[in-house]
Design goal:
single chain, mainly alpha, two-stranded antiparallel ribbon, 7 helices, 2 strands, about 65% helix, flat
């Protein structure tokens, strides 16, 4: 495996150090039980021990390892060098989301008034998908990152066209998620999952159609 500490993933290591430092500093100030899950309305519906405040740095560390293992065991590993920036950006954005969740958990645990998570989470997830969607057309053919169907993996042109459309679909879907943050709770959930389904199915179906049209 290539070096796990390198310029491309330095931002991930910084976020890991930051979330770990926050967890260490806040641990002794937190109550014995902290919130670990919220319902649709943003109310806490599950608690666990304060040791869970270390979950976010653990997840980020797991992603750093996964990012390096995936690209090094991939038979198409030479392709990663062509979209390094976009590849690590995806992991970085998810790590930022972990940091936000950690800070929100601490705020709620210490009774600090913050914006309801039922508003924050759809907006944050939407922003995540818009940024990934914006970079998706630059993904090169590989077995671990991107829209991986039997049709995209068997033909580079199908891969390219699928990711070009998929990027637009994810970008638009992300915008809809961000807008859904201000909708009533009962409608917000329906919109969120409807968008997710569309974002998953449309690129898959499109990759099949492109492949079939090309191989008539």
């Amino acid at each position: 495996m290539n070096k796990i500490f390198k310029h491309d993933n330095i931002k991930l290591w910084i976020l890991l150090a930051l979330t770990l430092l926050i967890a260490i500093i806040s641990y002794s100030h937190l109550p014995e039980q902290i919130p670990i899950h919220f319902d649709v309305a943003g109310n806490v519906d599950n608690y666990s021990g304060r040791i869970y405040i270390f979950l976010e740095p653990f997840v980020i560390l797991a992603m750093i390892i996964l990012a390096e293992v995936a690209r090094n065991v991939d038979p198409k590993k030479n392709a990663y060098g062509k979209f390094n920036k976009q590849y690590y950006l995806t992991f970085f954005l998810v790590s930022l989301l972990m940091l936000a969740i950690q800070l929100y958990t601490i705020a709620v645990s210490l009774n600090i008034k913050v914006l309801n998570i039922s508003i924050i989470m759809p907006f944050a997830m939407g922003l995540l998908f818009t940024m990934i969607g914006n970079s998706m057309p630059k993904f090169k053919q590989n077995y671990y990152a991107g829209i991986r169907t039997s049709w995209t993996l068997s033909d580079e042109e199908v891969w390219y066209k699928t990711h070009r459309l998929g990027g637009k679909v994810w970008f638009a879907g992300g915008l809809l998620m961000m807008i859904s943050a201000i909708l009533p709770d009962y409608l917000k959930t329906k919109v969120f999952f409807a968008v997710i389904i569309i974002m998953v199915l449309v690129p898959i179906i499109y990759s099949y159609v492109v492949y079939k049209n090309k191989n008539k």
